[in-house]
Amino acid sequence: MGNKQTVFTHEQLEAYQVGMMDQAIGGLFYRYQDLAPQLVPLDYTSCPDVKVPYELIGSMPELKDNPFRQRIAQVFSEDGDGHMTLDNFLDMFSVMSEMAPRDLKAYYAFKIYGVCADPRVGKWERTQTVTKLTRGELSTEEVSLICEKVLDEADGDHDGRLSLEDFRNMILRAPDFLR
């Protein structure tokens, strides 16, 4: 008795992927709806502009203990206020999934850490990031030392700030960062 290997056609695999995606989106819709059942109707097509408030988004298990939960919600919400439409919610979970491309994850992580309009992460933002990551348990000197080390390691053009390219290169050297 030999092992019989199942062979799928391209069309079968594509149909499977679409089915899995629809199932995942359906599951996320119900999670979204469960956050605010009084706001989000089961027939979402009748009210597609509904937004779930940040307070409910930030209380989700995936975010509630994350020191960047408010900034994550702000980055993914279309108005930057943390209140999310279903599309915003789906985008956030798409980027947070293990299947998301590394560059996409790096791009959003960079946006989350860079809170100013400047497209580079400066000293103040690095300090805020390290302080949040360590939950304020380090002294000012320790935070400053870590920020200097990060800058020494990652600042490719030596301008004292981290560009998206600097950030991506740093991420490549720290593969566990995006898990």
What does this structure look like?
The protein is an all-alpha fold. The protein contains eight helices and no strands. The longest helix has 26 residues, at 10-35. It is elongated and about 55 Å long. It starts with 9 loop residues before the first helix and ends in a 7-residue tail after the last helix.
Short description:
With 179 residues, the protein is mostly helical. The chain is built from 8 helices and no strands.
Helix fraction, binned, reads: 40-55%
Tell me the distance between the termini: 42 Å
Q: How many helix segments?
A: 8
What ranges have pLDDT less than 50 throughout 5 or more consecutive residues?
1-6, 16-20
Beta-strand portion reads under 5%
Membrane topology: Lipid-anchor
Organism: Capra hircus
Protein name: Calcium and integrin-binding protein 1
GO molecular function: calcium ion binding; magnesium ion binding
Keywords:
mainly alpha; metal-binding; about 180 residues
